[in-house]
Write a sequence for this structure.
């Protein structure tokens, strides 16, 4: 219990300290943002800061800080450390930088930013990689909420019915101007999401039958999976997530001042980490051990575990409220995943998006592809989503590092270079060792990951020693 309370406090302190340092390094000013400069009435529109914060939270949350946190809790309370420090030092910095750099490039996607700061090959690779990740994300965030809602509506309103309903909703949310659906519903959903997390946390603290374990470095995974690198991939959205780099540009198009960036981007990530921390603690506290938690996830799945925890801890009414909160998370990230994919494809093809016909040309094939992917096994989709997620985080952090170096902030660029190197080692080590990867032993995977990260760090240091000049589209 004490570790849990301290972890919550550290996340809050991190926002006011490391968040301010991150903001100071970037240097927001009074220049016009895309919402003011462009204001196209569809994607670039002014949104109040408090609304932008709640929309950003719903955009990035998904099932990651819930499902991922439950699976991460199988490693034991060591997961608390990754959620807290991964978020403060990596995830929130990643989200802030990707959002703010996008704002200075008229709301450009992470793919376009990669091309500007890492070169043309990175542009083409990231366009493909980003769209594939967004398709995986949108699909994962169709199947997981559909299975949860189906538990509340047994009978003919089964999984397939809710998949169709959610996909139809995605059509509307992807096509319509951002203020029509997202701007109106997300602030309400954001409140529900926060109330859900507070309710679960309160139940764990108040009810005597639940004990939150204290932090230890022990690896308690029932299947013997090593903490490195598997835990760092399993808990993605609650600590650091490349998916967020595809979402931050949406709010970069809507904030009315650069100085709102820390609240919107850094702040939303800290809130998401609080949610992840709550669910990681709830998983072990409710089931009593990592083995029993692992058994539950195997037998009833992530959705079933969420249902059991919510209903038992909070009763019928509270359980339904909590489940609604959990359903809202993925749906409100799934629709923006497809929306982000639409925007990246629009950048790529040059199709102007004010006309609904052009939006339809891109949206319909995207959602059709998502519908096909819903037929694949969820657990397989999740594993590939998790790895691609963290790989994109690695790339996004290197983009931010290049931005800072090119803007004369070479020493300060360590704030992104160090987590970038860390995530480089995580991503490479995981794909070499994972069952869905190359299935190599730790003897090969560990040194290969370290060497890869070290090589990138050397390239970064060499870049810092050279005289560089801003050119082309690079804008400080």
């Amino acid at each position: 219990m004490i570790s849990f309370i301290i972890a919550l406090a550290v996340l809050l302190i991190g926002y006011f300290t490391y968040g301010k340092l991150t903001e100071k390094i970037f240097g927001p000013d009074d220049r016009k943002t895309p919402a003011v400069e462009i204001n196209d009435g569809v994607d670039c529109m002014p949104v109040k800061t408090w609304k932008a914060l709640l929309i950003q939270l719903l955009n990035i949350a998904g099932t990651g800080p819930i499902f991922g946190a439950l699976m991460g809790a199988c490693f034991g309370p060591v997961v608390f450390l990754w959620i807290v420090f991964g978020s403060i030092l990596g995830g929130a910095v990643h989200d802030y930088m990707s959002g703010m750099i996008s704002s200075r490039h008229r709301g450009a996607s992470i793919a376009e930013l990669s091309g500007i700061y890492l070169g043309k090959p990175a542009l083409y690779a990231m366009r493909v990689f980003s769209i594939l990740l967004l398709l995986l994300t949108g699909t994962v965030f169709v199947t997981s909420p559909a299975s949860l809602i189906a538990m509340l509506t047994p009978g003919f309103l089964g999984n397939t019915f809710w998949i169709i309903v959610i996909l139809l909703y995605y059509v509307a949310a992807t096509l319509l101007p951002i203020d029509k659906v997202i701007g109106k519903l997300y602030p309400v959903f954001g409140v529900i999401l926060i109330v859900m997390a507070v309710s679960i946390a309160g139940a764990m603290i108040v009810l005597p039958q639940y004990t939150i374990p204290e932090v230890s470095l022990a690896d308690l995974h029932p299947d013997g999976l090593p903490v490195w690198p598997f835990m760092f991939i399993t808990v993605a959205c609650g600590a650091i997530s490349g998916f967020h780099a595809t979402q931050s540009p949406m709010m970069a198009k809507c904030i009315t001042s650069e100085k709102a960036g820390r609240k919107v981007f850094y702040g939303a990530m800290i809130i998401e980490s609080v949610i992840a921390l709550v669910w990681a603690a709830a998983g072990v506290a409710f089931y009593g051990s990592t083995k029993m938690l692992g058994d539950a996830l195997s037998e009833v799945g992530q959705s079933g575990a969420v249902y059991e925890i919510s209903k038992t801890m909070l009763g019928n009414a509270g359980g339904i409220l909590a489940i609604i909160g959990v359903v809202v998370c993925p749906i409100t990230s799934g629709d923006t995943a497809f929306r982000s994919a639409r925007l990246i494809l629009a950048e790529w093809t040059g199709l102007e998006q004010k006309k609904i016909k052009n939006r339809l040309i891109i949206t319909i094939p995207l959602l059709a592809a998502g519908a096909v992917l819903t037929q694949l096994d969820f657990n397989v989709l999740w594993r590939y989503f998790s790895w691609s997620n963290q790989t994109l985080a690695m790339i996004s952090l290197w983009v931010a590092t290049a931005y800072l170096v090119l803007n004369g902030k070479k020493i300060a660029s360590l704030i992104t270079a160090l987590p970038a190197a860390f995530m480089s080692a995580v991503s490479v080590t995981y794909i070499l060792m994972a069952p869905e990867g190359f299935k190599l032993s730790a003897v090969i995977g560990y040194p290969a990951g370290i060497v890869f990260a070290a090589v990138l760090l050397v390239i970064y240091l060499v870049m810092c020693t050279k005289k560089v000049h801003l050119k082309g589209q690079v804008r400080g």
In short: The mean pLDDT is 88. The two ends are 45 Å apart (CA to CA). The first helix runs from residue 2 to 26. The chain has 17 helices and no strands.
